[in-house]
Structures are given as structure tokens and as C-alpha cells.
Amino acid sequence: MSNNPKVLIAGAGPVGLTLANELVRHGIAVRIVDKNAERTDKSKALVLWSRTLELFDDAGYAKEFIPAGFVAHGAQISTGNEIVARVTLDSINSRFNYALMIPQSETERVLEERLAAQGVKVERQIELAGFTDNGSTVEATLKRASGETESETADWLVGCDGAHSAVRHGLGFAFEGSTLESHWALADGYVTGLEPKDQLHIFWHRDGILAFFPIVGDRWRAIADLGPATGNEKHPDPTLEEINALMAHRGSPGIVMKDPFWLAAFRINERKVKDYAKGHVFLAGDAAHIHSPAGGQGMNTGMQDAFNLAWKLALVIEGTARPSLLDSYSPERSTVGEVVLRNAGRLTEAATLRNPIAQGLRNAVVRFAAGFPALQHKAASQLAEMDIGYPDSPLTARGAYSVGGPAAGERWPDRLPAGAGGARFTAVGPADVVAALAATFPKLVQAAPASGEHGKALRLIRPDGYVGFAGAVSEQVDAEAYLAAIAA
């Protein structure tokens, strides 16, 4: 526990742990509490996508996840009798052009062990019972399992405390959306009869979807829709026999599960807050947005919330940037949340069509589209969250200028230089110009002299790997104005 945490984090799931790791990496004192007695032992969120891995790579610890996961190279969609489409992830323009299948329990283990190695321990069986934002600090009441309470004062509070977020409730924010009117089953166990093993297998049967996600070895996650639901109706958790009957009916012959780790029935919620911040309090991850598991975007979107917030908080806390920098967090991530929610909803709708004519049309369209490499690439990039950008952000300098390479608001394709990831802006361009910018803003900017195409332009790359400013080399004064608006 920190004597004087600058940031109090409620919730030690993947999002809270990512945020804590990133803040500690910048030397920011944090305290992270969680009401659960121990981290999850369930597979839950199952995939780290390319963009998330890039962010961890820029931060210096993507390699710690790789041995704990399994590399999947694509997805195969079939009706059980015939292949509708194959989607490859190999075309993703990333140093991680695959899906890293890794159980959430392992993701949390890697993050928690890394945090402990930095001297910060997750404090468990402590929940946030209430808080008051005093305008310059946040006074929080923490409650232990024994019932005793304590008061903690921090400069900032971040709610990474999931769909039933106490922080969101404390802010009085509406969690707008709905519960889908369908029942779903989840099974995590050992499966035989699925080949190839480095693919996601999706069966669009006339009676409903059955999808398989590789975990590791012969362990797979299966998800199936079980038909309509009404009101608050809950479905009993499925038995292994029921799961195997579903597989025999909807899958290709010979698929069998045994020794399940987890069998559950669930409903899909699609909900989101309008704002991710108020005063000195922020929301990230499931506390701000929940949606269909289709596409496996939930945890990744939440982790990217954490990366976005961490560098901004760090620069403001250390006095390098103005507090107004934090005003960009909510508009940037709320817009992304809306897109992810919409895409996941569309995937779910397509997968759960019941009308045989609509099913036939869907299959024909997907089969046709899969024949075009450009459409394949677009689908893979969307899944991997490579197409996320901030074109309309207050932090994106709007200029008409463009030269070969990414425009302002777009992802920077290269690995950030050591030390820049999540710490400072990187000025990319001719050596003398970028050196001058780094000299003018020594705490905020580091120089990365470039040759070739990148040497013909002047760019400022944000610490989270997105282009903030892109202009001609002659527009050095505009780049300086951009930085001056951020610098404290």
C-alpha cells in the first residue's frame, strides 16, 4: 500500500491491473483494491488482439504474455456440412499478426506478478463503499470483509470495477442499453474432433450458432445460443450432456467435450455510459461499456482505455502536462466504445439469424466477401482493433497535409523507441527539426530522426502510438504550438 497514492484504482481485473502497471512504470504511486478474495480462476475473456499486444510491446512487456497463450491464425465458418468462409489473420499489418488465445486467469496472473515485482500488491477483500470528489482530491471510504472501514485520500480515482461498478453508481451515471432477448451457453473443457487447432471454428447451423475458441492444448471454449429469452428470465447452467448434444447437432461429426472447467448460461448485455469521466473520477473497461462477446473485444477495449488514460494521468501528475490533457480521455474512448458496441452487436445479429432465407443470404454474402483479400484484410483489422483511431479527438491536429504514412489521428505502425511507450511524445522527422522540438520541450518530447518517407514529414506520435500532429517539415511552428497547448 502506498502511503499517499496519487491514484486509487477500484478493481483488479485485467483493466485495473493494466492501468496500475502503466502508472507504476511512470513512477506514479497507486493503490489498487478489489473486493474478491483472489483473482479469477475462470477463462472469461480469451484473446489478446494485435493492437493490445502492440501497446504492451511499446510498454516493454508483451513478451510476458506469449508463453502463457496459444497463437491462432484465423477463423473458419461453416454450416456443419460445408465451409462458408475462412478468415486469415496473417494479413494484419502488425508485428503481432495473430490472435493470442490466453485465459483471463493467465492474463491477470502475468499482470499481477509484474505489478508485485514493481513493489505494488493488490489489496483484496477491500471494496469501495463510497467516495467524495473534493475538487482537488477524492476522499474514498474502503470497506474490508470484516466490516471495518477506512478512509483513503487520492488525487484521482479510477473505477475498473466491472459491470456492477460502485464508482459508476457513485457518479450517478446511467448505464444505457439493454439485455438481449436470447439465452446463451458457455462451456470450457477438453474437446476432440476439431481441426485445425490454430483456428476459431464457427458453425452457423439453421438452429443457431455454435462457436469454438482454442485455449491451449486440447482445451477449447464453446459458445452456443439457446433461443429466445424474455424479461429477466434466467436459464439453468447447461450440463455436459446438453453441451455434447448441441455439438452433435450443430457441429461437424465427431466433436466431443469432456472434463469441463466451466459450464454456464448467460445473457448478453449491451450497455454504455455517455461520459467516462467527471472531475477527478474516471471509468474504464466494463464499468463504462459492456457488449456481446462476439469478436472478443471487451477486455481489449478496456485495456486500451487503461493505456489511453495512464499516459495522460502520468504526464499531468508529474507536472509535465496541463490538467486539460485529461479532457480528451472521455471523448476518445467513448467514441471507440460506441463503435465496438455496434460492431459486436452486428456480429451477434448475423450469427443468430433464425429465418432460413436470411441465413442463406448471409452465408452467400460472407462466402462472396471472403473471396476478396481486401475485404478479408478489413475484417481481420477490425477484429484485431488495428483500425481504431482518433480523427475527431481534441488532441488531433487537423491539417490538410498528408505525405506517405499515417495522418493525424491514425495509428503509428512502428514500434515506439525505448522509453517513449506511454511516457513522452516522439517527434519523427529530419534530425535537426526533431532535435529542436525535443530541446524546447525536454520533458514532453523525445526525438526520433527519420530518413526515407518518414523523413519528408514532421510527426508527433503520442505515447500510446497514435499520430497527434502530421505536417510538412516547414510546419515546425505548428508542431510547437501543438505541444505548447499540452505542456504545463
Could you give the topology of this structure?
Blueprint: E1 7-10, H1 14-25, E2 30-34, E3 47-48, H2 50-59, E4 70-72, E5 74-78, E6 83-88, E7 99-101, H3 104-117, E8 123-124, E9 126-133, E10 138-144, E11 149-154, E12 156-159, H4 166-171, E13 176-179, E14 182-192, E15 199-205, E16 208-216, E17 219-228, H5 240-250, E18 256-266, E19 269-272, E20 277-278, E21 281-283, E22 289-290, H6 298-317, H7 329-351, H8 356-369, H9 373-383, E23 425-429, H10 431-440, E24 445-449, E25 457-461, E26 467-472, H11 476-486
Parallel strand pairs: 1-2, 1-12, 2-8, 5-15, 12-21, 23-24
Antiparallel strand pairs: 3-7, 4-7, 5-6, 9-10, 10-11, 13-19, 14-17, 14-18, 15-16, 16-17, 19-22, 20-21, 23-25, 25-26
Summarize this structure briefly.
With 488 residues, the protein is α+β, with helices and mostly antiparallel strands.
